[in-house]
Amino acid sequence: MLQTVRLTLSDTAYAAALRDALNHTCAWHIDSAASSDPGQPSVLVLDDTALARLPLPLSHPECIVLITHKNSERMAQAWDAGIVSVVGWDDSMDTVLLAIMAAALRMPVSHSPRAAHAISPNPAPVPASITPISHRPSRKRCKTQ
């Protein structure tokens, strides 16, 4: 199962570079949407313009990554909305990817067995069963001289 990342960025060149970087890091399903639905299970990567269009309160603000200018007035709005991943346009692509991966790890967990390894291409490990060993406590004898 692939994690979905929805890009809603007005800078098309930056969105293309981010899409390319995501394709080279992990198995992501990348979606570009002009108006992303925050209720769908995905990581949303937004800019200031897209954030202004979202209805408040946000259903899963911990799964949103906001890309903004450092001194933007949207930073206070993002904080009030509960967004925890805020990066700047001048941050490195590695920093942006790290914020996206962190937001993916904060996705609400479903109770299906496949959800435990949704970010990893490896199958989930099967836990080993541990059977209790029944031992009767035996008396120890001390040697005395």
What does this molecule look like?
By secondary structure, the chain is an alpha/beta fold. The chain has one domain: Rossmann fold, CATH 3.40.50.2300. It has 4 helices and 5 strands. Strands 2-1-3-4-5 form a 5-stranded parallel β-sheet, sandwiched between helices. α2 links the parallel β3 and β4. About 3% of the residues have low confidence.
How is this fold's topology laid out?
Layout: E1 3-8, H1 12-25, E2 28-32, E3 43-46, H2 48-53, E4 64-68, H3 74-81, E5 85-88, H4 93-105
Parallel strand pairs: 1-2, 1-3, 3-4, 4-5
Q: Please provide the ordered H/E string of secondary-structure elements.
A: EHEEHEHEH
**Secondary-structure arrangement, i.e. CATH architecture:** 3-Layer(aba) Sandwich
Going by helix content, strand content and strand pairing, the class is alpha/beta
In this structure, how is the largest beta sheet organized?
5 strands, parallel
Uncertain spans, ≥5 residues at pLDDT below 50?
A: 113-117
The strands making up the biggest β-sheet line up spatially as 2-1-3-4-5
Tell me the name of the CATH homologous superfamily. Response regulator
Ends apart, CA distance between termini? 70 Å
Beta-strand percentage range:
15-25%
Helix content: 25-40%
CATH topology group? Rossmann fold
Number of contiguous helices: 4
Number of strand elements:
5
Global morphology: elongated
Taking all residues together, what is the mean pLDDT?
78
Q: What is Rg?
A: 23 Å
Which CATH class is shown? Alpha Beta
